[in-house]
C-alpha cells in the first residue's frame, strides 16, 4: 500500500534568510531526486483534475515503482477513471483525456469529399475523446455511421 510516508518535503532557511525547498534522501549519492504528484484532497471518478487539487512531493521510498505521475503536466486537465485518495500517488494508467463528445448529446456529423461538404445532426452512441472512432446515429435518417471525433467536437465520417 502506498502512503504519504513515502514522500517528504522539507523547507529550509538558507544563510540569506530566504526559505527554500530541499528533498531528503537516505542514499546521499543521488544527483537527481524523484518527484511524484499527489492529490491534496479526494478526487472522484469522472472529475477533471485541477492544479489546485495537487501537490508535487519528493519520493523518499526507494521501493516505490510503477508508472506514477511525476509532473503536473501529466495530470492537470485529465479526468480520473478511479478514486484518487489524498496523499497517494497518481498512476497515469488511471487517467484519460476529457470526452470531446458525450453519449446522447447532439453533435455535428461532417462528410467532406473535395469541394463537397455535407453536414447533419447526430447523436453519439458512446462517449469519446478527440481522435477516437465512434458510432453516431444520424438524427434525420436514423442511420448509424462511424466517424472520427475532431477537436472542435464534430465527427468526420468517410464514405464506405
From TrEMBL:
This is Flagella basal body P-ring formation protein FlgA. Involved in the assembly process of the P-ring formation. It may associate with FlgF on the rod constituting a structure essential for the P-ring assembly or may act as a modulator protein for the P-ring assembly. It is found in: Periplasm. Pfam families: ChapFlgA. SMART domains: SAF. Residues 13-33 have a biased composition (Low complexity). Residues 13-34 are annotated as: Disordered. Signal peptide: none annotated. Its main location: periplasm. Belongs to the FlgA family. The gene is flgA. The keyword Signal applies.
Amino acid at each position: 500500500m502506498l502512503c504519504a510516508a513515502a514522500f517528504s518535503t522539507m523547507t529550509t532557511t538558507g544563510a540569506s534568510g530566504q526559505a527554500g525547498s530541499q528533498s531528503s534522501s537516505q542514499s546521499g549519492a543521488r544527483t537527481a531526486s524523484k518527484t511524484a504528484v499527489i492529490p491534496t484532497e479526494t478526487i472522484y471518478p469522472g472529475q477533471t483534475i485541477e492544479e489546485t487539487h495537487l501537490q508535487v512531493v519528493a519520493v523518499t521510498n526507494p521501493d516505490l515503482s510503477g508508472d506514477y505521475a511525476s509532473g503536473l503536466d501529466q495530470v492537470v486537465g485529465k479526468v480520473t477513471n478511479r478514486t484518487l485518495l489524498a496523499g497517494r500517488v497518481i498512476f497515469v494508467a488511471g487517467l484519460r483525456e476529457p470526452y470531446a463528445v458525450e453519449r446522447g448529446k447532439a453533435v455535428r456529423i461532417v462528410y467532406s469529399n473535395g469541394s463537397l461538404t455535407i453536414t447533419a445532426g447526430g447523436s453519439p452512441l458512446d462517449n469519446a475523446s478527440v481522435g477516437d472512432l465512434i458510432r453516431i446515429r444520424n438524427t434525420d435518417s436514423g442511420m448509424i455511421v462511424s466517424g472520427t471525433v475532431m477537436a472542435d467536437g464534430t465527427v468526420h465520417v468517410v464514405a464506405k
